[in-house]
Structure formats: structure tokens, C-alpha cells
Write a structure and sequence with these properties.
The protein is of the alpha+beta class. Helices cover 40% and strands 14% of the residues.
Amino acid sequence: MDDYTVSLDPETEMFCSLYLFKNVQNSDEIRKKVMDGTLSCSIIKAALVVDPLQIIIAANKAAINAKMNQLTTKSIYTEILFNLSISKNISRILTEFGISDKDENILIVLMHKKCDKKSMSEILMDSIKGERISISRLFEFTDFELVKKIYKIEKDELDISTFTNSIVSRISCKDFISLK
């Protein structure tokens, strides 16, 4: 299985690892474990992710905010979800990007120091009843119509830009602009 781990801003000394699962049978249990702090990760609906870069940008912003003690939310993991959205309504973002009890295709985001990855990922893998698949298959689970709606992407925008570029631009500029 390919491993998708990226080094974030060097100042943060953090890494971000992504794991894609399909046919997950215990989303309700996983969601509860994340909410009560038993699992330290972000769990995202795979349907809303067009490209891993989208997650890496949001995770990097979260890591920088955490390093500067400027988190908008309570944890680095909810901050990732917050950064993924163009909204500033935290409860709506958690509902929109976080998983529901019925989601079967999920993306797990793990933030870690270089030396902590193995132990953290083992705990995660033991908790998920589903099939781990290559991150390169992410596009198979993307709901492009839903992505257009959530990110307010018009058809004509895609004539001059890609989904990934449109989303990354919105994530990067969220602090500076408000989309109608």
C-alpha cells in the first residue's frame, strides 16, 4: 500500500499523512472516538475531496495556526476541517466535511512529528473496519456536483481553471475574502 505523507511548513516540524478507506462499516464508532478524543485525526467525507493537495493546504494552515497559538477551533484536527471550507460557521463545517454515521468512503488525516507516525497510524488502522486503498484512487469517490455546490464553483470557471486550483484558491484566500 502506498503511503501518502507530506512534510508541512518546516517551522512547524509537522507531517501530514493521508489514508483512504472504502466500505467502512463502523463510521459511527470512528466518529464517536474522534469526538471523545480516543482517536487523534481528522476524518473527512471522501466525496468532498478532489485532490490530496486540497487537504495538504488545509493541514498546513492548521499546523501554522497551531504553532502560532492561533487556532480558530479547539484542535488542529477540527482546524483542518475549518480550513477546508469556505464558510466560517464551525458547526456547519463539521457537519459538511466530517463523516456521518453512514459514510462508507472516508479520508483520514493524521498530523504528526516524524518519529510519531508509526504508533499513531497503527492505532488508527486497528480502529477502522474497512478496506484501505491507494490515495491515487481518491477521484473515484469524489462527488463533483457536491464539490461545485459546496465551493460555489460555476461551470464557466472550470473552462479556465481546474477543480483543484479553484478549491485551493478558495482555501488559501478564505481569511481575506468572503464568497457570497
